[in-house]
Specification:
This protein folds into 2 domains: 294 residues, Crotonobetainyl-coa:carnitine coa-transferase, domain 1 (Rossmann fold, 3-Layer(aba) Sandwich); 72 residues, formyl-coa transferase, domain 3 (2-Layer Sandwich). It is 37% helix and 15% strand. The strands form 4 sheets. Strands 8-7-6-1-2-5-14 form a 7-stranded mixed sheet, sandwiched between helices. Helix 1 packs across helix 7.
Length: 420
């Protein structure tokens, strides 16, 4: 049975953890969805006026619902609050009282100015784990700067090592890796803090940033720079330490070949019928291959252009040489391994209908998580979250009447029923 076909009562390893997500766009929501996929009850608190900005990222949409929002906010319940109103602030404080984690990715001092900073909220709940994801972190000379993936990629060195070569322009990684990685690091920090809380009852702040997240992707290049004093630069798809380890054009497309160690290098030469290169002094070891990389690629490219991609992949796989196709996103979605690992599950949304999303990339044998709930409508779960927080029906009606809390006016459909 796929993860997506499991019921909403399925127990993930974080079952019992309550998370308040005061986050928007990507980095904070990634943190929340990682915890939600592992079983945490994540309550997404959106602004009453329009909700998460990602709701307006249209096109593309599915029946009027932004595809970007649907992707980033599956598995979460939603409540809409006006945090500039006293009513909205009081409701948030009440929710925080029983929460384990609060996630926010606003500019520095935004929560403090609202009277909802860590120092205030920990008086309500000393065990609160307060996760801040920002552009540059909450300390240091850049702490007041806003955070954007493009800026983080440029300042971290990532763009300087991404592109076709040193004479070509720097290139941004296609995916917003600093946003996504910052969210994953935030979730890791929350889990570490949660372990500490389980032992001591103490909460704490978790502070990470897009800048630091992008920097973590420079491990190899930073190692080279620390050792040599020289900054590595753009190498296309080539590896900075091993060769051949890159993309090659074939008769009908592109494949990646990872023949970096000596044994795989020799196997690859047998596969392509270039055994004489094994004795060529320019290529006898990895050090020589790296020193003569341009010539190596020139020679190998002529061999790979003689057959189609599928032929080469069959030959290389049979010989045990690491290789793979260069797939489009759509092709990746249809790949047999992607399907087998349940990485494109579906949910039923009350407006958008069946929606495919990206699955949980971590599999646990005893307490598996998974995607079981679609992204919420704006304020879809406001009433039930308020009821769980102890508000009476009359109190809930008054909160809604005040405008400090917004509830969805569309609840038709089996929005919480997963689809296998």
């Amino acid at each position: 049975m796929s993860h997506a076909s499991m019921s909403l009562t399925r127990k993930g390893p974080l079952t019992g953890m309550r998370v308040i997500e005061l986050a928007h766009i990507m980095a904070g929501p990634v943190c929340g969805l990682m915890l939600a996929d592992l079983g945490a009850d994540v309550i997404k608190v959106e602004k009453a006026d329009g909700g998460d900005d990602t709701r307006s990222f249209i096109p593309p949409d599915i029946n009027g619902e932004a595809a970007a929002f649907l992707m980033m906010n599956r598995n979460k319940r939603g409540i809409a609050l006006d945090l500039k109103s006293e009513t909205g602030k009081q409701v948030l404080k009440r929710l925080v009282k029983d929460a384990d984690v609060l996630i926010e990715n606003y500019r520095r001092d935004t929560m403090h100015r609202l009277g909802l900073g860590y120092d205030t909220l920990r008086q309500i709940n000393p065990g609160l784990i307060y996760c801040e994801i920002s552009g540059f972190g909450r300390t240091g000379p850049y702490r007041d700067r806003g955070g954007f993936d493009l800026i983080a990629q440029g300042m971290s060195g990532l763009m300087d090592i991404t592109g076709e070569g040193p004479e070509r322009p720097p290139v941004k990684v296609g995916a917003p890796v600093s946003d996504i990685t910052a969210g994953i690091l935030g979730a890791m920090g929350c889990l570490a803090a949660y372990v500490h809380k389980q032992k001591t009852g103490e909460g704490q702040k978790v502070d990470t940033s897009l800048f630091e997240a992008a920097i973590t992707h420079t491990y190899w290049q930073s190692a080279i720079c620390f050792a040599t004093g020289v900054s590595p630069t753009r190498m296309g798809t080539a590896h900075p330490l091993n060769a051949p380890y890159q993309s090659f054009a074939t008769k009908d497309g592109w494949i990646n070949v990872g023949a970096a160690n000596q044994r795989n290098w020799e196997r690859m030469l047998d596969c392509i019928g270039a055994g004489e290169l094994a004795e060529d002094p320019r290529f006898v070891s990895n050090a020589e291959r790296m020193a003569n990389l341009d010539k190596l690629v020139e020679i190998l490219s002529e061999y790979f252009k003689t057959r189609e991609s599928e032929q080469w992949l069959d030959i290389l796989e049979a010989a045990g040489v690491p290789a793979g196709p260069v797939l489009s996103i759509k092709q990746m979605h249809a790949d047999a391994q992607v399907i087998a690992r349940d990485m494109t599950p579906q949910t039923n949304h009350p407006v958008a209908g069946r929606v495919r999303t990206i699955g949980l990339p971590v599999k646990l044998s005893a307490t598996p998580g998974g995607v079981v709930r679609p992204a919420p409508l704006l304020g879809q779960h406001s009433r039930e979250v308020l009821a769980e927080a102890g508000y009476s029906d009359d109190e809930i009606a008054a909160l809604l009447e005040s405008g400090g809390v917004i509830a969805a006016d569309r609840t038709a459909g089996k929005q919480d029923d997963p689809v296998s």
